[in-house]
Structures are given as C-alpha cells and as structure tokens.
C-alpha cells in the first residue's frame, strides 16, 4: 500500500497494484482448501479496508489504460459486490474466496513404480509420434516462426483431433483458424484453433462461426447437401 501511495507514474501504479492482486490471488489459491477460509479472509479484509482507503486516498489519480489482466479478475471475482476499480484497474477483494474440496489423487498413478507410471504415460499419448514428426518436418513456410511453434502444443491440447469434427489430425489435413478474426496478426497460443482443411472450407461456405459449426456437428445437422456423420 505504501508503494502504491508513493507511485508517481502510471507504470509504477500498474506494477504495484498488479503485485497486490497477485499476492491476494496467490493466498486465495493456496488456502482455499481450508474449511474456514471465507471467515478468515473476511476478518482480514475488515482490518485491511481502513488501511487500504486511508493509504490510497491521497494518491495521484492516474489511469492505466487497457490493463491486460482485468479479464481474468472479472471472470474470477466479477460476482463480488466488493470488486472495485482504481486507476482503471480492478483491486481483488480479499474476502471473496470460497472453500474448495481437495481432489483425491488416483491410486492407479504413482511415478515411483514401473506399473503405476503406465497411467501417466497413457494420458500423455494424445498424438501419434509419426504425425508429430511429419508436422515438424513440414511447417507452414509462409507463416511466422511463432505460429509453427504453437502448432504441436495446440494439437496436443486438442488430443490430436479437429476442434469442430473431432477427425484425427495429420499433416495432410492440418489447418488452423484464428479464434478472434480481429487479431489475425497475433500468432499466440490462445488465438489459434486447429481444424481439418475441409472444415475450414465448410466454415467459409456456410458463413457461420466455429462454435456454431461445432454444435451442428455434435447434433449431426445437415450442412449443404450431405448430412453430417
């Protein structure tokens, strides 16, 4: 809070508020397995509020434009009435955290014995090795290095199948689209979707979004002249 109060530029305010949010989110993620976490955080928030607003009341009123992590905070803490903004950035409410049940690990998984390592290796086998090698050896030569670096991990995250039709992806039918057409110059992992070449053509002919096309495939609706199978 003192660092935020001493900030004299928008960049300093952004860095210090970001650090504050990271600490609060980190505490929430670490302690949310404790059964009384919401009660404890409520008490801490009550004591912190006076300090927070006293400290920040006289701070210079800068605005930090288009803060990049506001989307995550909105999604995670958006339902809280205590979520407030300062300098164009959200301040994570300390008291907004709920107990989460710890997940029981499977007894079939153990990395210390050969027999129980099999489960780990099986879960990782989402793509054929020959397919991976083929894709690596035949990159998109007219695309950026960043895009080609993304292709394999993105295929793996989709378990080696087309996002729309769930057809197995090979080098021959491999293609991609941008999740956000406004960001076609952004070759980043979150903006790439791996699809079959024929599906990409269907999307262009049908003139619909990828989510709508995916729903049609799941419902096996008719597209064009032939029913989806």
Explain the overall architecture.
The protein is mainly alpha-helical and 229 residues long. The protein folds into 2 domains: 2-91, no CATH class; 124-227, no CATH class. It contains 9 helices and 6 strands. The strands form 3 sheets. Strands 1-2 form a two-stranded antiparallel ribbon. Strands 3-4 form a two-stranded antiparallel sheet. The protein is extended, with a radius of gyration of 24 Å.
Low-confidence blocks of residues = 224-229
Globally, the shape reads extended
Secondary structure tally, helices: 9
Rounded average pLDDT: 78
What's the alpha carbon Rg, rounded to whole Å?
Answer: 24 Å
**Structurally, how many domains make up the residues?**
2
Task: Give the strand order of the largest sheet, numbering strands 1, 2, ... along the chain.
Answer: 1-2
Proportion of helical residues? 40-55%
Largest sheet: 2 strands, antiparallel
Name the helix and strand elements from N-terminus to C-terminus, one letter apiece. Answer: HHHHEEHHHEEHHEE
Could you tell me the number of beta strands? Answer: 6
Structural class: mainly alpha
Strand coverage percent: 5-15%
The termini sit apart by 59 Å
């Amino acid at each position: 809070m003192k660092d935020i109060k001493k900030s004299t530029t928008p960049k300093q305010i952004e860095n210090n508020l970001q650090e504050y949010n990271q600490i609060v989110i980190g505490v929430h993620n670490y302690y949310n397995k404790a059964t009384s976490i919401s009660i404890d955080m409520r008490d801490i928030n009550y004591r912190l509020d006076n300090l927070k607003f006293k400290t920040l009341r006289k701070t210079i009123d800068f605005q930090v434009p288009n803060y990049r992590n506001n989307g995550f905070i909105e999604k995670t803490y958006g339902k809280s009435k205590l979520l407030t903004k300062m300098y164009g950035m959200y301040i994570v409410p300390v008291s907004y955290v709920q107990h989460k049940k710890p997940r029981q690990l499977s007894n079939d998984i153990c990395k210390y014995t050969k027999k129980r390592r099999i489960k780990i290796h099986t879960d990782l086998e989402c793509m054929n090795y020959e397919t991976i090698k083929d894709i690596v050896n035949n990159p998109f030569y007219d695309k950026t290095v960043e895009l080609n670096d993304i292709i394999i991990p993105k295929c793996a995250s989709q378990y080696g199948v087309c996002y729309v039709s769930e057809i197995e992806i090979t080098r021959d039918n491999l293609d991609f689209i941008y999740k956000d057409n406004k960001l076609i110059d952004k070759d980043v992992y979150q903006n790439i979707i791996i699809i079959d070449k024929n599906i990409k053509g269907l999307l262009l002919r049908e003139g619909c979004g990828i989510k709508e096309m995916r729903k049609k495939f799941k419902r096996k609706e008719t597209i064009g002249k032939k029913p989806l199978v």
